[in-house]
Amino acid sequence: MEKQPSNRAEHLTESSSEYQEFLRATKENQKEPYIKLASLPFGAYELLQIEQSRAAIARVKDSAYIQSENEEIEDCFKSIRAKLLMKSNSDVPYVRAGFKHFFRVAGEDGELGDASELQTKFSSGSTTNSQFEQMVRKYVEKFNAKERILKEISSVILEKFKLRAVEAIKNGSLPISEELLNDRLKNLEIKLVDAMSVPFLGQASQQYGIQISSEFNNEELEHMLFHELVHILDGTTIIKANKSSEIRYDINHQKAGLLFIDYKNNRAIFEWLYEAVTEEIGSELAGDKPTHYPRERAMLQDLYKKGLSKEILYAAYFENYGGKTKPGSGETPIPQWKNLVKNLEPLGGIELLKKMDKEYRERDKKL
Length: 367
Ligand SMILES: [Zn+2]
Known about the structure:
Elements: E1 10-12, H1 17-29, H2 33-38, H3 44-59, H4 63-88, H5 93-106, H6 115-123, H7 129-170, H8 178-185, E2 190-193, E3 202-205, E4 209-213, H9 218-233, E5 236-240, E6 251-256, E7 259-262, E8 267-269, H10 271-286, H11 294-306, H12 310-317, H13 335-344, H14 349-366
Parallel strand pairs: 2-4
Antiparallel strand pairs: 1-5, 3-4, 5-6, 6-7, 7-8
Zinc ion (ZN) binds at residues 227, 231, 275, 278.
């Protein structure tokens, strides 16, 4: 009889070869191709096709061939116009916002006209192909310029972040090791993604690094990057959903910072707390004022007022799963989290956090 595979989930430590292999493979294979796609600005692909067709026409004198290339150019314009128009009718707010964003960028320097005029003209169908091409070209140029700026500024910001983090480690306000800091920041990729294709301003994960939306302001970039960099340093619990799984990607973060994934109900728990603390630590390190997540930070302040210890909270935020413990030894692989739960007891226990979480998610639904 064949041995049945065990279906139990298993925890992995960060240094385990299995997890390291997972990180390497996901980076290489781009498990989430949308990041790759979003790093190509809207219209860039179609522009390239149009240019290729034009180059082919210039090379060949055969009229039948020219006719078919011209049709291809026409199709490109049709397809990209349709893509843009579709966004304006979308039910998804960020997709709809992408429509406006396109004209805002195309009209930014006023060379092609005022943004709202461009939008109205396009929506009424009176933009010619050549006018539309200029707008797309402008959009792609602006994206490329932003990409160069991000590359330049982010390396300076990253160095500053490292210095500040080392200082904070030394004075005890950042409970991680310098080794972990260097490890996580080593080979970190900071990528610009098209604001028209993503629902966020910034995003960070250990697998894919940091993505910054092309909507960013130069003045806000440092604050944003510090926030995302704190995400990169957070403590994780890594879980392999199926112990005997041969599937290379069957690995996930069960805990990131203070966020937990409830796989059964497919939802994130304590996301507000995670973001509030991330924003707090990011601005502490940057030496500026927190700006993002005001509602979440107000909830956190409420907990502090009730007696939550910031030190204990931070220790839990940065706690990495500690590996297997001996059964019956009384040891736990997550002592800092246990400590936090204990600290919460006089405030209403973990139930208080769960209650706040429920209220938070329900209010979100109404919006
Ligand atoms: Zn965040």
